Structure formats: C-alpha cells, structure tokens
From TrEMBL:
This is FtsK domain-containing protein. Pfam families: FtsK_SpoIIIE (PF01580). InterPro entries: FtsK/SpoIIIE/SftA, FtsK_dom, P-loop_NTPase. It comes from Photobacterium galatheae. Residues 366-563 form the FtsK domain. Keywords: ATP-binding, Nucleotide-binding. PROSITE patterns: FTSK. GO terms for molecular function: ATP binding; DNA binding. ATP binds at residues 389-396.
Length: 956
C-alpha cells in the first residue's frame, strides 16, 4: 500500500493527476480500500485461529476415541490373545468373522504407542490365504496359525470344525488337536480326508444353496442349525502332500467358501511342488501379510506369536477348556414358521388327489420340505412312506409336526388318522381328542398292532367294493364325481417291527403287503418308522418296499447307513451328515438317488401341540354340535379297559331311548362291529339271547362278549387266580342283566362266598343294589342257597312238562356262584368203591348243567384255580360249560379246562395288563382279551352308576 502511494507521488503521474484534479480523490479511495483489506485480514486471522482450535479439539477427541477403542477391544478383536483373561470370557455366542484379525499396526498418539488390530476379509470373501515361509520363518508362521485357530475357536465356539493337515509330522504341529471340540477325523490317506471335505461341499450346495441363497453364511440360522463352518489349515505345505492331495486341496480352496469351507496354507517356498502340481491351481491365493489385503492398506504388519511355550500352552488350554464347556443356543425352526396356526385359516385343503404338508425347510426357505401321499398334479405317485432314525434323532417330533400340520390343513371330513405306538411307546397319548384321530393305540402289543392293520384291510375291501358297485376306479374318481367326502386314511406306526413279532403265520407281513400294494386306490396310506428300515421277521419285503415311495432318514449309526439299501450313494452321504436331532433326508421317488432332499424338521413344543389339539377339537365341536362329539378308539396296551368306554354299549343306549324290542335287538346284533354293532348274525329272539360284555378284544372294534341263549350247555365258567379280573368281570356281568331282560323277565340266584373283610367282599352286593331291579336272591349261606336250588330244580321239572311256547314265555333263571372253591358243599365226595360222586347240591348242578340251558336256566360259576374246579366237576361236567373265561395258569391246567396251552402264555412276558381267554366250544381258537377288572370301590361305583344312569334313561 505504501509502495502504491509512493508511486503516485512521482512527478509525471502527480502532474497528470493534479491537472485532472483527481489526486485527492484517488488517494482517499486507496486509503479507504486499504483499511477494508486490513480489516479483512484481521478477521481472516481470527477465523483461521478458530478453525485451528476446532480442528485441534477434533484431533484430541479422535485420539481419545482411538485410545478408548483400542483399550476396550473385545478379546476376540484384540491382536494379543495372551493378554486376555479367558477365564471370564463367556463362550456362548458366535461371531461370524467376516473380517479376521491377523496382526497389529503401531500408532503413536501423544507419545503413546497403540497397537491397532489389522484385519483381512475372511468369511465374507472367496480368498485363500497363505503365509509365505522360508526355513528361518517356519516356526514363526506356525505360531501365526495357532493364533488364527484359537481366534476362530473363540469366535465360533460351537460353529467351527477344523481340518488340521500335517502329513509330514503326522499332526505334531497341532499338539492341541485332541482338545478341539469339533475336528474332522483324519485318515492316513490325506486325499481320502480331502475327498470327504469335497463331498460335504457338494452336500451343502445341494441342500442349502440355490439362486436365492448363494452362501452357507446367508442361510437362515434355524435352517442351518448347527451346520459347522470348516477351516482347513495346511501346515508346512507342500511337504508330505502328493499331486492328488494338492489338486483336491486346490479344488476345495476354489469352490468351498460358498459352502463354508475355508483354506489357509503355511506355504514353505523352500520345498518344491510334486511333478505336475502348480500353485496356479489355487485361483484366489493371496499372501495374508501383503498390504493390498488389509483394510486399510498399511506399509508394514507386525503379528503376535503365542510367545513362550508356557504362555502358549496356558493360553491355548484356557481357551479350549472354555470352548469345550460352551453350550450352543438351540436354533429351532418353529412349527409356526411352516404352519398357519390361525383357526380361521384351517381346513382349507382338499384330499381328492393327495395329502401334503410342510414339515420343515431347506436352505432356501423355511417351509419347502414337504411330506405327501397320493397322486401329485404331475401324476407322480407316492403311496406309502418309511422312516428310519436312531433314538434321539427327532423321529417323534417329525411325527408330531406331520400329524399336526395335516390336522390344521385338512378337516376330519377329509382325513382320518390311525396312530399306533409300538413297544412301550406313548408318543401318541395326546391324540385321542384330536378330531381326525379314528384310532389311537398306545403301548401296542404285536397282536394289537396286527389287528389295526386287519381293520384297515377290511376298510380297504369295503371301499373298493363301494367303488366297484358305483362304477368308479379309485377314491379320487369317487370323490370328484359324487361329491362325497370319503376321507383319506393315514396309518402312522412307530416301531413298526412289532407287527412281525411272534407272528408264526406271517399275518403281519401279509396284511402290510395288502395295504402296500392295494391301499392307495382306496385312499389308505402308511407311514411306518423304526430305528432302521428293515425289520426282523418281515416277509414279502421286496413287494412291500417296492410300493413305499417315500423314504425318510434321520441320524443313524454308521453301520446302519452303510447297510442301507433304501438309499443310494448320494442319499447315504447326506444321511451321514445328519449329526443332530431334526436333520432329515427325504426321497419321494422310491430312492431315485437324484431326488434326495435334506433339511431340518420344524420343532413343535408339547405345549403348543396340546393347545392346537384343544382348538381343533373345539372347532370340530362347533361345526358338528354336541350330538356328534368326537370319540376316537383308544387302545391302551398297558391298562385295563372300562365298561364305560365300550362303544357298542354307548351305541346301544344312544340309538334306543327305551328297552329295545326284539326287532331292535336283531338290528343292533346284526350291525357290523365297525359300526358299533355286535356283528352277530345268529340272533334269534326265540332263543332269548342275552349279550354280556366282559372286556376288550385285542383289535380295534372287537369287544369281548358272550351271548347266552336257550341252547344246550349255555353256561359260563370263570377260572383264574387274578381276583381283580374274575371279580370285575362277574360283577359287570351281573350289572348287564337289566340291559338284556325286562324287569320281570329274569331271576337271579347268587351265592357269594368271598371272604368277609377281603377286598373282594361286597363287590357283588353293590352291583345288585345299584343295577339289578328284578327278582334277586342274594345268599352268603350255602344252606339258604341249597333251598334255592331245590326250588330251581322243581321249576326245571315244571318247565319240562310245558309245551314249547309256554316254556319260552318263562323268565330266564341265572344261578351264580362266586368263589365256588369255598363252597365245599358242592364238592364231590368219595362214594362206594372210592369213586367220587356228587352230593345233593352237586347233583342238582350237574343235572342243570346238562339240560337246564334249553329251558332257560343258566349256571355261572367262578373258581380261583383249576384244582378247585375238578373237586366239584369231573371232565364231562367241565365240558358242559360252553363258555369258559380263563386267566393265566399252568400248561397242564390250561389243557384241563380249554384243551390247549394258550392260557399258559397269557402273562408270559408281562404281568400288566391282565389278559384273559374266552374259549367257546363252537370256536376253533380261544379269543384273547383284556378283561374289565375291579380296581377299587370308587372306580367300581363310578362304572356302576354310569350303567345305572343308562338304565334309568330307558325306564324314563
């Protein structure tokens, strides 16, 4: 500015300016402008100072943030593993290492040196990293591998699987390998191990990956479950590796990252590769220490080794001890992920073609793993299915998910279920109230299992006859053309090998073959399961398995997988990968090895299952009304039946509002058992038939009953030591007299010889007081009973003199003796020449046994042992009892009473439940059943009161 003014005062310029009278004005303007510039400069200096101060403040804050970040690094992010307190570290969470800490960079802040962690992209990329090694750095880089292995163990305590390769020193470079919780078993042939890794890559790609899900790391954790990420670490490579193993390792490195397989090499560059091998085979090979790999790039990199051996061992041991105790969070695919549990959306499915429901998911979706039976729209057929799984593999949960998924999708009009728990199983105990459940069988014995199959074969025959009669070929055509909702039937059998146990005549195999080969057209399908696919004693296996299109496998032993014929090589490979509960391999194309699908089964909790069953039952009840409440047929192989659970008895009282007429009885007796009738074709009113239920047969519909008529030898004998069974059957027999006879149509003469004060005394009197409303003569004294017998004999003789029509009009007389072994007056006595002869009472009984039944006089006697029977009756008299109920006894006693050894086999394997045999002189084989037993006074009275209420409904 001063220079400018000085120039203006020069003579030449000054003269010019003065002449123009401009000088004062210019000088004033310049000085004013200079002042403004000075002000601006001062102001700029102030602004700069403020900016410098602000930047300094920000720098200080950044330094503090960096210091805080470095000092508060999580142990998994810190470069120095030896400086951490691993004893307090919670090994219970997985951290996916998209970036992996491999070392540190020193950063000096205010004279303080901070070690900043340096990372490389890891699981988020496809690179294969290697450590370049010369002889002098071999030990250093080996320690670097230890660092990485320990860091991955901490980050993935239950998600990391290690394949540690050290063929040159046979694993010596990884001394802690035994402590790793998850490691791949190594064989002497390293190529075989690497081939197994490649098989896993193929399996994971097949099972989890598709166009929507391209990497295992992106698969939903509920689907992925505990599928492990594998880290293949090769020590001192390529020493000890042949050309084949290098080729395989390169193939894993190039293709494995998408399947969760990551390769890290310690590349000893002093060792030449085998002939023909090349490092160029590794397409994405990168030096882990090169600056271009780091974020951000740095000029140099330092790395912690695990220091001295003592510190190294202590750190490694502490880390691996913590990893070993880590408990993974249970990742479950929930039932609600695959099934709509809103009742408003239920029962939308139609079973014309098939039944189909999702039971889980694969890698792409949560609900794309489906079980189905029938004929798909593409005309593929899936008639039946078979499930093999070892204990703990999740077989029961699969059943529940399948059953409840079907129950939510299809209404009971569309689908009926027959559920059988073999052996001691009670998995299906919650299903009797499920409206779809037609039959639920628990603790099912072999003969009971076979009876369910027999019922389904009969149902199949009935349906096929219906289709033929109506002019249709199968269920699909019948439903589509008639509009009738004849439901499909699904039989589910757990532990299906029980079908073939103690099956000398092969009926179980025969029944299963019939259902397998003919059931589909009738809409009847099977899903059977066991610990392995085949079953001992199973005949016609080729024919049966040829019609089982759906094969389902879960976790199985290696020996069982190797022996499988139901899956091909690819299926076996997938099955070997099923290491935890819920993993499943399915094939719905009769084991076509290209059609295997693997995934995870949804988890259905007990609480949700029970709640859904309740809601389903309520929904069905609202639709059907209280008049048609659902009652499944419950077959409990471990317990005794109740008379109140008898469907035939319930049907009788629900059908007829008053005592049935003769025509009513004919109708009810002729009705088949599957319609809750007696299935008795020979029911002639002129014979005054009377039906008595004594228990439940070992089949679906059969109720153990006897029909006593006015025919010769129509008498009943109970023999056996089980007091609860004999007393129960006899008391309920007494309680049913008013069902069969009007009030004045029968007379009862009862001699009760049970010991007073015993649990069995009072049972008969309670029954008579509660249920019997006709002429009853109850005696506990033999002398009083003798007087009754005299009157009965006179009545018998009177009836003999009547014409037939008059005799038939007389009331039926029942003579009952309970605990007859204590009525010694009935026993035979030694007569002349030592020959046993009947006494007076015995003689009357003998005459009535031979001729009384034809005149309406029936004898019912109960003994606790066969020896007591033979004291009263000789062999000829015993044969006069047409109806015999026997309990467990010796083989000799069994032959004495029923002329076979069957009674000696009743409780051969178990004492509970109690079994009985009904032997009828007109039958070829005795019928095994579970009798109505006396439990206690309260239970007995509850049953009697229910029976009495039924009877009152008729009288009202």
């Amino acid at each position: 500015m001063n220079k400018l003014i000085k120039n203006l005062t020069s003579s030449k310029i000054k003269h010019t300016v003065e002449q123009a009278d401009l000088y004062p004005k210019i000088e004033s303007s310049i000085r004013e402008h200079a002042k403004v510039q000075d002000d601006l400069l001062k102001r700029a200096e102030c602004v700069f100072a403020e900016e410098v101060a602000s930047q300094q403040k920000q720098l200080e804050a950044a330094k503090a943030t960096i210091k805080q970040a470095v000092t508060s690094l999580s142990p998994i992010d810190t470069p120095d593993l030896t400086s951490q307190n691993w004893l307090d570290f919670p090994f219970n969470t997985q951290y996916i290492p998209n970036e992996l800490v491999i070392g540190y960079q020193e950063l000096v802040i205010d004279g303080e040196t901070l070690k900043m962690p340096v990372t490389v992209p890891f699981m988020s990329g496809d690179d294969t990293y290697y450590y370049p090694v010369q002889a002098d750095s071999l030990e250093w880089t080996q320690a670097a591998l230890h660092n990485i292995i320990m860091r991955l163990s901490v980050m993935l305590p239950y998600g990391a699987l290690f394949c540690l390769l050290d063929p040159a020193k046979m694993g010596e470079n990884f001394p802690y390998i035994k402590q790793l919780p998850f490691k791949r078993p190594l064989s002497n042939d390293i190529s075989r191990t690497l081939e197994e890794v490649l098989d896993d890559i193929k399996r994971i790609k097949q099972n989890y990956l598709d166009n929507r899900t391209r990497r295992l790391i992106d698969v939903d954790v509920e689907i992925r479950g505990n599928e492990k990420f594998e880290f293949i670490v090769a020590s001192n490579f390529p020493k000890g590796y042949d050309r084949r193993s290098i080729e395989l390792l390169a193939q894993i490195a190039n293709t494995g990252s998408v399947a969760g397989k990551y390769v890290i090499l310690q590349h000893n560059q002093d060792i030449e590769l085998p002939n023909g091998a090349s490092m160029e085979w590794f397409e994405s090979l990168k030096n882990i220490r090169a600056s271009e790999n780091h974020i951000p790039a740095i000029p140099s990199l330092d790395m912690y080794m695990l220091a001295s051996e003592s510190i190294c061992d202590e750190t490694i041991n502490t880390i691996l001890d913590g990893v070993a105790k880590a408990k993974p969070k249970e990742n479950k695919l929930e039932f609600t992920d695959v099934t709509d549990t809103d009742p408003n959306h239920w029962w939308q499915g139609n079973t014309d073609h098939e039944i189909r429901v999702a039971i889980g998911g694969t890698g792409a979706k949560k609900d794309d793993l489906e079980l189905w039976f029938g004929e798909s729209n593409g005309r593929q057929i899936c008639a039946h299915g078979m499930l093999g799984a070892m204990t703990g593999a999740g077989k029961s949960n699969l059943y529940h998910a399948f059953i409840m998924g079907l129950a939510c999708r299809y209404s009971p009009d569309e689908l009926e279920l027959y559920l059988i728990d073999g052996k001691q199983g009670v998995e299906f105990k919650c299903y009797p109230t499920l409206p779809h459940a037609k039959v639920v069988s628990l603790n099912t014995s072999p003969d009971l299992s076979r009876s369910v199959l027999s019922e389904l074969v009969e149902e199949m025959i009935r349906r096929n006859e219906l289709f033929k009669r109506e002019g249709y070929e199968n269920l699909r055509d019948y439903r589509r053309r008639t509009g009738q909702k004849l439901p499909r039937v699904l039989l589910v059998v757990d532990e299906y090998q029980t079908l073939f146990e103690d099956d000398r005549d092969g009926s179980g195999s025969d029944l299963m073959e019939k259902l397998a080969t003919q059931g589909r057209s009738a809409g009847i399908h099977m899903l059977v399961g066991s610990q392995r696919f085949g079953a001992s004693g199973m005949q016609n296996q080729q024919s049966i398995f040829g019609n089982i299109h759906l094969r389902i496998g879960m976790q199985m032993s290696e020996a069982d997988v190797t022996a499988l014929q139901e899956f091909g090589p690819n299926g076996k490979r997938l099955l070997r990968a099923c290491k935890e509960a819920g993993q499943v391999v399915m094939n719905d194309s009769a084991a076509n090895d290209d059609k295997n699908r693997a995934g995870r089964v949804t988890y259905l909790s007990d609480e949700l299952r029970v709640d859904l069953i309740k809601q389903l039952a309520e929904k069905w009840q609202q639709q059907q009304g209280f008049a048609n409440l659902h009652h499944s047929i419950l077959l409990d192989g471990s317990g005794q039946p109740h008379l109140s659970e008898n469907p035939q008895l319930e049907k009788l009282f629900s059908t007829y509002s008053a005592q049935p007429t003769q025509d009513d009885w004919v109708e009810f007796a002729n009705k088949p058992e599957h319609e809750q009738g007696l299935g008795e074709k020979e029911w002639y009113p002129v014979e005054k038939p009377a039906n008595f239920w004594l228990g439940r047969e070992m089949n679906i519909h059969g109720q153990a009953s006897i029909v006593m008529r006015r025919r010769s030898n129509e008498h009943l004998l109970f023999v056996g030591e089980a007091n609860e069974a004999r007393s129960g059957m006899l008391s309920y027999w007494l309680g049913q007299l008013p069902i069969n006879h009007a009030q004045n149509d029968y007379q009862l003469y009862l001699l009760e010889r049970a010991i007073k004060g015993s649990p069995w005394h009072g049972i008969m009197s309670r029954t008579i007081e509660t249920c019997c409303h006709s002429e009853v003569h109850y005696r506990e004294s033999v002398s009083e009973f003798a007087s009754d017998l005299g009157n009965i004999k006179a009545e018998f003789e009177r009836r003999q003199s009547m014409d037939e029509e008059q005799m038939l009009a007389q009331p039926t007389i029942y003579i009952v003796v309970n605990e007859a072994q204590r009525a010694t007056e009935l026993q035979q006595q030694s007569g002349r020449y030592g020959v046993k002869e009947h006494g007076d009472l015995g003689a009357i009984i003998s005459v009535l046994l031979e001729q009384g039944a034809e005149y309406g006089i029936h004898i019912v006697m109960s003994f606790d042992n066969v020896r007591a029977v033979t004291k009263v009756f000789d062999r000829r008299d015993i044969d006069l009892f047409k109806h015999k109920i026997v309990l467990q006894m010796s083989e000799d006693d069994s032959f004495s009473v029923i002329k076979s050894r069957h009674a000696a086999l009743l409780q051969q394997t178990t004492r509970v439940p109690v079994y009985a045999l009904y032997a009828n002189a007109s039958q070829n084989y005795p019928v095994k059943f579970k009798p109505y037993c006396y439990r206690d006074v309260e239970d007995h009275m509850n049953e009697l009161n229910l029976l009495n209420n039924y009877l009152k409904s008729w009288s009202n």
